[in-house]
Amino acid sequence: MNPIDELFIRLKTAGRKAFIPFLTAGDPDLAGTAHLLRESARRGASLIEIGFPYSDPIADGSVIQASYTRALNKGVTVDAIFAMIKAYRDKARQLKENDVPLVAMVSYSIVHYRGVERFILDAKSAGFSGAIVPDLPVDEADELARLAGKHDFKLIMLVTPTTPRERAMRIARLSTGFLYCVSVVGITGERSQLPPDLLESLAWLRTQTALPMCVGFGISTPDHVRVLRDSADGVIVGSAIVRKLGAAKPIDEIAKDVGDLVMQLMDALQV
Amino acid sequence: MQNTSASVPDIHGRFGPYGGRYVPETLMFALRQLTEHYKAAQQDPEFQKQLDYYLRYYVGRPSQLYFAERLTKEAGGARIYLKREDLNHTGAHKINNCLGQALLCKRMGKPRIIAETGAGQHGVATATAAALFGFQCQVYMGEEDVRRQKLNVFKMRAMGAEVVSVTSGSRTLRDAINEAMRDWMASVENTHYIIGSVVGPHPFPMMVRDFQSVIGAETKRQCHEQIGRLPDVVIACVGGGSNAAGMFYPFVGDTSVELIGVEAGGRGAKEGEHASTLSHGKPGVLHGSMSYVLQSGDGQTANVHSVSAGLDYPGVGPEHSYWKDAKRVHYTSVNDDDALKAFSLCSRLEGILPALETSHAIVEAMRVAAKRSHEDVVVVCFSGRGDKDCFEVARLMGEDIEE
Q1: How many whole angstroms separate alpha carbon A84 and alpha carbon A70?
Q2: Per residue in A89-119, pLDDT tens?
Q3: Chain B contact present for A81, CB below 8 A
Q4: Does A209 contact chain B (CB < 8 Å)?
């Protein structure tokens, strides 16, 4: 069984929610990312999203873009990311550490350049269980969905507040692993408040799909998390964590900051 | 050669394998809405009437088709005609598209317009249209370009637009587009994004082409009036490719007419030294559509260079990719030095300062004309005037004209 399916079954049985932090591969550097992965897993992350740095990330806000730019300036490549993930997974298994599922957050430009099937196979053999391709809407996703299905690789699709209901149903049908529910209109990045009709649209989506539903974009505080915990199966936190990666500090201190935030948000998530 | 004309794009915005919509889900709503409004506007004679009115009385269309006698003599072959888009209000073809989209924005009832700009021509044209119709206007411009193009920044601000300096990524046109798209994702309810070229997700490549097609349609009519037949060769420069798309599109079905697109050859064929997307790139995804793109390893967008800011773009409109593969348009490139020479040549021989973008097309026109007989006619899309480039050209010639 795909580790993402296993995870959500396990969480459901335990009555718990998924906490999904986002890390940029290669920020502050690849060794640092491996360190942060280990720390996030140790502090209770359920699943980790790994962002593949891309030169033109239109869905992302300034915090994640700046992080991507830092990583690219250090020369991070897709091959190097896969190698780092593979090494991390091998070591985690060896040490019998908490081995959480990993999902790639990757622009279609990168997937297309490598070749769709080759990307899936390489990602899977590195240890990814699925991918989110934020600039590939359902209309263009048939090929990727078909090949992902063939290789038991999850393709997690996004539903946004501007998605009409019929289209949301179509997206939910194509999505696998879980459904990524975008909380706000706009790009990634912290917000002071979540939109008021979010809970209502989550409740409606719940009646339409059996997939786990995880909410992301703009979530940064324990209060946000508490608002969402009864309506969602998990939350995704990106910018609030990535903001810490750019700090001019030793990696141990960055890892502690990230770990503390993961734990704080993780605690707020559990009833 | 396959017939390439009227059938593209299909309803999914596909020009063969190119085009489409590679954008975040949040933008899909706006793109669908825009497509519907555009379709309705196209079928509404009142909309076309309004656009024609502004194109005639505000822009000054039709722009002239001018026989360039001395350039013709210099080349010593075919007759060279210039389609004078430089005579439009704001000095380039960009205004054709901006007025069309601004009228569409008015129709959609949105009070705010955003745009990206590289050198500032599209920004100025957008600010102009926004002032004309009373829209709030924000123009995204790379930090480097804001510094280099002070005059255009001043013009935009004078017309009431806010110029936002973009400091992310490479701080150039590419990032200005990214930033404008991000703005649009969060503001789709009250904002229209006027993209400046035949790039981006569907329906932009189709819509911008349509609004620019007035260039080719007029040229065709003027050729019949002045030479009594179609031209033999039509040449235009290609950055994103909007003046070329507008010039070529009405001629695509006329297979006797040879179409040539000229990209920026920059300083050479090495990555980072040029912006010849169709000559050196390969199919990929950038800014919401599938098209030829200049990428370095992994699918990251490559750095590009051209002396001409308007051609300095790592992508190209999807319809150009389609025309290239169908061999309907031949794409070539011209380097910085030759373009600079053509800037001087055209200025001296015709008393017309071409934009550096246009200068690329002039180089190719001289080459092609030299190989043909005097019976033949070569039309160049004279996409813009060179005023904006005077500081840069003077700098490259070692003259200081800044105060």
Answers
A1: 18
A2: 999 888 888 789 999 999 999 999 999 999 9
A3: no
A4: no
